Amino acid sequence: MRYFRFQDPVLKSLRRSFVRARCQAKHRGQSWEIDFDEYLEIWRDGDKYRTPGRSKSDLNMTRKDFNKGWSLDNVEILNRRENLRQRMLKIT
């Protein structure tokens, strides 16, 4: 595996979150079909990158259909509050 070094702190943060998300999907037994370049496109907003976070108003990547794996056609970017609301609606 190649080790990536980014001078840009945003790209460095996105690379770290990409690796973390891919490892978490593998740990949960979920398929992961997104490479790093595609991951960057998902997080691109015009000419800037959005960054994921952990507070309830921050953004995160989620699956549209939880029965399918992580692929370009099955992911979207939502804030954590909206993501939780959608999950609760799908459970009930």
Can you tell me about this structure?
The protein is an alpha+beta fold. The chain has one domain. The protein contains 3 helices and 4 strands, in the order ααββββα. It has helices at residues 9-28, 36-43, 80-91, and strands spanning 44-45, 48-49, 59-63, 75-79. The strands form 2 sheets. It has a two-stranded antiparallel ribbon with strand order 1-2. A two-stranded antiparallel ribbon has the order 3-4. Helix 1 (9-28) crosses helix 2 (36-43). The longest helix is centred in the first third of the chain and has 20 residues, at 9-28. The termini are far apart. The mean pLDDT is 87.
Termini, distance in Å? 42 Å
Strand content: 15-25%
Instruction: Indicate the low-confidence ranges by residue numbers.
Output: none
Radius of gyration: 14 Å
Which short descriptors sum up this protein?
92 residues; two-stranded antiparallel sheet; two-stranded antiparallel ribbon; 3 helices; 43% helix; globular
Structural topology:
Layout: H1 9-28, H2 36-43, E1 44-45, E2 48-49, E3 59-63, E4 75-79, H3 80-91
Give the structure's gist in a few sentences.
The chain has 92 residues and is of the alpha+beta class. It has 3 helices and 4 strands.
